[in-house]
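As the work plan foresaw, our protein records have gained a structure token line. A representative record is set out beneath this paragraph:
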Amino acid sequence: MLNSPLSAGAGLDLAAFAEALADRARPLALAHFRTPIGIEWKADASPVTIADRAIERALREAIARCFPEHGILGEEEAAVGIDRPVVWVIDPIDGTKSFITGLPLFGTLIAAVVEGRPEVGIIEVPALGDRWVGTAGGTTRLNGAPCRTSAVTRLKDARLYATAPDMFAGGETTAFEALAEQVGLRRFGGDCYAYGLLASGHVDLVAEASLKPYDFMALVPVVESAGGVITDWTGAPLGIFSGGRVVAAANATLHAQALDILRSTSEPDGPGAG
């Protein structure tokens, strides 16, 4: 097993290693999908399953074995070394509510963050066999083929997604509704899958709140390397310590219009909020 991608000393670059992690996550997720599994509820009222924990544990073990000097930030276990030059950010199942209700739009999110900037991002969607891989300064590929965001530049033509209306609170709801009133189509659902659809040109805008770093760090290279723009609601780049509000757009023109509405109708989102 010395040449295995998940063996120490394999000498792989970060993108290849990230794909090897996604390869490991896929069968673990599928082994539990649409099967009778127990559900636990965390303190924030979000669900967690044996699949969440099994995937994160497997990926953490692989990272620690191959790159013991790297940090790890995941949803289900304590962070390790997030001040290190390279940090892996993992969401074992993004969309656990979709997962436990049999909806195939859940995914595993994997990001390699180098000096605070996400350099590699993967949206792995096991049930559909889809995988978006984005590398900073490179291209985004869906199942190996390059993909691009749409050319839509007017809000009235834009297709807007958010995972759920109840992810917004207070002024966030007002801001999202103000944006939704200006677009051509609004849909809810999709979790991380919506960002993959944006990278492939099927969706033009995604606006969300109440997110955590493991929900959005992998999305950055996927969206940006496909030609899109993704920031917080103030227009600042996303990082491990960003707040929970995210807006992604197919291009800078559309992003600026959406940002203007969100920024003018919402309250400040401080570091770590959401």
User: Anything to note?
Assistant: The radius of gyration is 18 Å. The longest helix spans residues 14-32. Residues 7-11, 270-274 have pLDDT under 50 and may be disordered. The helical segments are 14-32, 50-66, 96-100, 171-180, 193-199, 213-216, 219-224, 252-265.
